[in-house]
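Write out the 3D structure for:
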Amino acid sequence: MNYQTLKQAVTARLEIKKSEFIAYAYPVNSREEAMFHVEQLRQQYADAHHHCWAYIIGDPNNTTSAGFDDDGEPNGTAGRPILNVLQHKAIGNVIIIVVRYFGGIKLGAGGLTRAYAGSAQAAVDEMILLPYVAMAQVQILAEFATEAQCRYIVESLNGRIDNVDYSKKVTLTVTLAEADIEHLKERLAMDGRVLDE
């Protein structure tokens, strides 16, 4: 799975024939997270005419977890163009929501399609993109005397320590790149062991 994902949320604004288009992009890991952002913007911009969106969870080349909504705009003129931009740019784990204030001049189906695609592109232009790295959570069982060395190894692999449980031994729950799990096991040979994932 080679694709890019958004480092942090961004915003972009366009004005087209007196209509204002405000595009928001957020990094997301689930449909529920994506819909949370949609609802937040519906509340924040309750007086806006449309809140159109598209999201991709996971690999943009395999869009089994993608969705879009035209929110009252003519069918296919808003959500689909936003989704097309995300697919074309190979960006996954992202939602773009475009809030539209109607300016009184009708844009027509072609104009709307270009406006929503342009808004999505404007958001993409603001993005800092990072390569997607599949992460996994594992547990390490260690002796008290080797805990510090285990922590050092996890941190040297850019892993994150999520939880530490002390009983007869130390159990560290850590998150790191899936590709580094075997390397972690090799480096822990003397200091601890990775419990079955």
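The CA atoms of residues 52 and 71 lie 5 Å apart.
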